[in-house]
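All the exercises in this workshop are built on plain-text protein records. The record below serves as our worked example for the rest of this section.
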Amino acid sequence: MSNRLAVIMILLAGLVLIGSSSVYIVNEMERGVLLRLGKVVNPDISTGIHLKLPFMEEVRIFDGRVLTVDAPAERFLTLEKKALIVDSFAKFRVKKVETYYTATSGDQRRAEELLKQRINNGLRNEISKRTLHEVVSGQRDELMEALVVALNEVADAELGVEVVDVRVKRIDLPQEVSQSVYMRMNTERDIEAKEHRAKGQELAVGIRADADKQREVILAEAYGDAEIVRGNGDAEAAASYARAFNQDKEFYKFYRSMAAYKRTFAEKSDILLLDPNSDFFKYLNDSQSLKN
C-alpha cells in the first residue's frame, strides 16, 4: 500500500511538473518567441496563456516596452571640420521579435551596444553634412528627424528594433579649443559693447547740443520778451512823468531837484564844487530866503 502511494505521489508530481512546464503566459508588456529544439517556430507570440511541448519547446520573453539606450559621448567633425563632443540617447522598442532574437540572442545589453554603435555612426554622418551653427541650433530638430529615419532603416533590418526617438543631451567643444573659442567670443562681445557705447555717446552729444540750442533760444526769447516789457514799462513811466510834469511844472522841477540833492549828498565824504548862485542850488537858496 505504501509503495502504491509513493508511485501515485511521484506520478502526480510528474504531472504537475509537466503541466507547469507546458503552460506559459505572455503579458501585454512583453514580446516572445517559441523555440523547438533551438529553432524558432513562432516568431511573435501573442499575449495571453499558451501551451508548449515540455522539454522540447522553449519560450524566450523580452521586454516590449519603450527602452532607453544612453550612447557615450563621442567626438564628431562638422562640415567646416570643427570638432564637437556630442552626448546623446535614444528610445527604442522590439519590433521584429525573431530578428531581435537572432541578432542579439535575446540579450538586451548586446542590443543596446549594437544600437549605440549605429547611433554614433548616424550622428557622424549627419553632423558631417552640417555647419557648427546648424548642428547647435539652426537645424538641430531636422538632424534628429533625419537620424531617426536613417537608424530605423538599419535597426529594423539588422536588429529587429524600432528607434522611437533620438535626442542630444549636450553638445560641447573639445577642451583644447574651448578657451580659444571663449576668448574669441569675449573679444566679439567687447567690440559689440564698444560700438553700442560709441553710438550712445554720439546720441548723447546730439541730445546735449539740441538741449543747449533750445536753451539759448528760450533765453533769447525770454530776454526779448523782457526787453519788450521793460520798454513798455519805461514808456509808460515816461508818459506818467510827462503827464505829471504838464500838470504842475514847478512841482516837477522841485521834485527833480530834491532827488538830485539826495543822490549828490548821499555820502558825507562827497564834495561838489559849484557856484552858489547856480541853478543847482536854486531851491536851497529859495528856502534860505524864506527863512530870513
